Predict the structure of Restriction endonuclease subunit S.
Amino acid sequence: MANNNDNKVLNVPHLRFPEFTEEWEEHALAEYLDFKNGLNPDVKRIGRGLPFISVMDILADGTINYDSIRGKVEATEREIENFSVEKGDILFQRSSETLEDVGRANVYMDNRTAVYGGFVIRGRKIGDYNPLFFKYLLSTPLARKRTCRMGAGAQHFNIGQDGLSKISLCFPLMEEQNKIARLLSLIDERIATQNKIIDKLQSLIKGLRVCCMQRNGSDNVYLSEIAQIYQPQTISSAELTEDGFLVYGANGIIGKYKDYNHKTEQICITCRGNTCGMVNYTKPMSWITGNAMVINTDKYQDKVYKKYLYHYLSAYNFNSIISGSGQPQIVRTPLEKLKITLPTISEQKQKAMILDKIQDKIEINHNVLNLYILQKQYLLRQMFI
């Protein structure tokens, strides 16, 4: 890679392949794409027929392909003629509840016939470009900034064909487009592979955790017999600090605080909000807020191994004890009555050790995934103008 940080005059990116020296040229999207709004069919026609591209397909990872499209619609021959997509067409999200998501784009990379919906704007290919390069270009910080600037609305933000047509971005020659697209697509393939590895490990640990719950010949005890169950004191978000001890709330780690209320590691279950029932295993010397229920086994170490119970509860479906019409919540009494399958301490430790190793492997692979994502974000900032 060649570094162009010292180049103050030429219209070139900071980072590029060394064989390329030509300047990039700025063009309006209208020079490459012909825009058209999508099909708005009757509800009765949705659910069968041709693949029907929606906003969800645009926001999904990877490119849009015939087999990956979620929806279907019955379309007439005229509708297929007017609202079909071809390989290389760019699809834009027309409407969004948040400004930062308006105009997000993806590319159709299949030769088979599909149609697109009314919340989507199609950019039909009329210029010469690499479709994958175009997709990556539209996701760069500058492209997103210029696209969001064209968004308008109060409750919902919208972008139209005219707004998209006026967006100007810089393009290199086709050979450089091809090479950039190839590099970034290889990183995307590695990210997809990494996600599959994580999914398989998560499926494995989930299955093994369920086996723990179904163990025959073990004692069944109430959770209240092996743990103290309580909600600690809550602190407000205004009290959080940049440094200090980790704070666990409804969404896992939510910040730091000057003090801690638990010296040892603890199992805590989110007991309020949309993440109700999520199980966390805290770090030592942490503050746990009142949005989580602590399952403290420190006084019952002769009966239960804490990590075993953590894995056991991680497999538990708490839906049956979640209450509340407005905000979901879990209260202490039904938790106390949960039946726990409890083998001997030595067997608990053995099972926990196996599950811990898989958990560690999941975390390592998550870290690798995050590195690939950061690498891609860096290249999107540096290899484009």
